[in-house]
Give the backbone structure.
Amino acid sequence: MEAQNALSQEQVITSTNFYHHVWEKLRENKVAIVSLLLILLLIVVALFAPQIAPYDEGFQDTAHVLSKPTNIHWLGTDEFGRDIFSRIIYGTRVSLSVGIIAELIAMTIGVLMGALAGYFGGWVDSLISRIIEIFGSFPKILFAIVIMNIIGTGVINVFIAIGMVGWTGMARMIRSQILQLKENEYVEAAHSFGAGNTHIIFKHLIPNTLSTIIVNMTMAIPQDIMYEASLSFLGLGVQPPTSSWGQIISVGRVYISTLPGYVLFPSIALVLTVLAFNLLGDALRDALDPRLRRMD
Amino acid sequence: MLFEVNHVCKYFPTGGNTLSGSKEVVKAVDDVSFVVYEGETLGIVGESGSGKTTIGRTMIRLNDPTSGEILFEGRPIQDLTRKQMRPLRKEMQIIFQDPYSSLDPRMTVGQLIQEPLDIQGDLPLEERKARVHYFMEICGLEPHYINRYPHEFSGGQRQRIGIARSLALRPKFVVCDEAVSALDVSIQSQIMNLLIYLQEVENLTYVFISHNLNVVYHMSDRIMVMYHGKVVELADREELYFHPLHPYTKLLLRSIPNVEHEGIKERHVDYHVPLPDGYVLDDDQKACALHEVKPGHFVFCKKL
């Protein structure tokens, strides 16, 4: 009976949710909100590109080749008379999907490798850590070029190439975090219930690294967008007539003195996107940091 | 006899160099033997590093013993694989010391208590849910806590969640590993009373590990004193506390803070009982072993 009575004497803290706190904190940060809105806008633009763009991405207005910004071609046209504004809008699709899909691939590889290395330790850890070091010892863009050369060009292959070079940072972070997390008694508790390694890794350890995963992904997406731009700039990425920002910049650089807008406008789009993801990542890192969390 | 532990050793490798082949080990548990009877509470006391936690965890095979034999209901379990141990996990459970790190912060109370049942997976979902509700109730947790997260609770309530989770499988045997040591003194007695209440309701056998002699005295039927990986004395509670024979046990008892209430100090502890004829204490550990000097009273000493 005493056991039952005891309860009323212990204090119950009012119900709060971790992600609710994170959102509250994020909302106070104006830069983060602006970045978030910009990213949402880009997603809308990418989804409704055909509806938003005044022209089709391949449409050639032969009467206006290499025109300066006018009221029929807001940002001018390229050497085939294609509307640059429309091509930037269509390019959003490639840049964003590369950022997100390539990062999802990188995240999956990184989290799995990191979790295996951190959890099992021993020779598994040594092997995976050496692989990470090998990948890390080359410039990533060089690696991506090699992969693109092997598997060929095209959007899907860009995803694969960038995903394959981008996982090492995530793996390193997850590995070190799992090394700490596995010392928690809830892991031993799971053992005592008869749980297998798969259960412990996927039900307990990886969910507890979620903040790290989110922050790492938002910080890595702009990098991936830059890799795509670089690959396309080098002619290895997206092939015409599909447009991507890097590819427009690549072709447009020839006309930089006569028609600066050709290079300038896609570059602005690229810089703004990269900046938005970076700033959001910074804000998320602060908001998710438990040391900075207030429980008031 | 529920558990029989025979000459169990647990050595942990330290430092050492795998290349040079030198093997330095810490003998956390060194040739320990004892039995646990059904329905009793066996208290284990000792200072930090005495091996009390290690032997508790090794018994239920959370550690692999270096050598020795562990019999559970007469069946040797020291060599079973993790897979073979799995059905046995239902019979033996552990309650952890730290009510913070032993609960996954991303799971709700309901998920936490149901987890062992989900892992064992031999009950229909309805029955699992009913078990969760039942154990929340008898552990003094209100039903509406079920969707809350551990960080919303105080240490004492978190320990109740941990206890409900360990008992959800309806084990026969539970290791309470410093189960109340991390709690406020005012909460400690509530949790101890809960454990005693649950022992009656669920017919549990406990191994109760603690460094706090008052707590162990309150909880245990028999008490085992450990020192540097060895059992130095094992006897019924009254016998051990009032007629200690081993110098280390005497030292421990003298070190209990002198608080004049229902504690042990109030009653007379006889520090001057000699070992029975034929037994002597000896500094040479190799010459000593755990001998039954009186019925039910074991002391680590030398037999002449």
